[in-house]
């Protein structure tokens, strides 16, 4: 009723929400071009006096960008690929296969979404520390650092995602069983049914899950910081940017940090802009509000 009488109110809410979302990002970009002493001064200036690219050069000089990007890309690619594979297979099993305990398993998967991820960081770290025959450990996981000193530690705790399984399962439930039964009658095995029939139909939700997983894995900070304390060589880009806070010139600290943040955001922003239509379609088809 209110929407019909005041249609402009809906547009006003959308515009306000867009401004509140976009302005902080634009402020970050503008601050990255500010010179020494411009950031944090009063009265506040949104635009820099002169667009200064030296902040980006300083950020690159302070950070070992090739190594940081390599670690971030490797960890993000492994996590995203694993989540897509395991979520698709588990979602198919929970949606289309009949076996004892299926509903119980699905409830257990849902229960994993109720706990904050950092709650499991200490158990994960202890498991990696005592990983047998790795990092100087013996067969019983004693004597060394385990997998905490390897780049694999960045990805191992995130290879399976409960939300991904839930998202894929909710989408696959809508696929007609008759289509799958026809394939089975023609002699297709379960793997062939999943790969040739189910996977092509789940492309929108797969791209949605890939984008969400990519963004989360790329921006992961707490776990990456914990692993970096054991081996600085596996430091990722978000952790490295935090170290820009120790820049020697305090008048340039904030612009250089913002320049580093812009560099870290671009690999996330570009895929999102290219895949946003699939993201919106995947969310709508999955029945999420």
Describe what you observe in this structure.
The longest helix is centred in the C-terminal third of the chain and has 33 residues, at 253-285. Helices cover 64% and strands 0% of the residues. It has a domain at 1-62 and 247-275. With 289 residues, it is an all-alpha fold. Helix 3 crosses helix 13 (253-285). Belongs to the binding-protein-dependent transport system permease family. InterPro entries: MetI-like (IPR000515), MetI-like_sf (IPR035906). It holds the Pfam family BPD_transp_1. One of its GO terms (biological process) is transmembrane transport. Residues 69-275 form the ABC transmembrane type-1 domain.
Primary descriptors:
single chain, 289 residues, mainly alpha, 0% strand, flat, transport, membrane, MetI-like_sf, transmembrane helix
The major pleated sheet works out as: none
Radius of gyration: 24 Å
Poorly predicted parts: none
Shape: flat
Q: In percent, how much strand structure appears in the residues? A: under 5%
Query: Assembly state here?
Result: single chain
The run of helices and strands is HHHHHHHHHHHHH
Percent helix range: 55-70%
Overall pLDDT = 85
The helix/strand class is: mainly alpha
- Amino- and carboxy-terminal Cα gap: 21 Å
Beta strands, count: 0
The total count of helices amounts to 13
Membrane topology: Multi-pass membrane protein
GO biological process, one term: transmembrane transport
InterPro entries: MetI-like, MetI-like_sf
Transmembrane segments: 7-26, 73-95, 104-127, 147-168, 205-227, 256-275
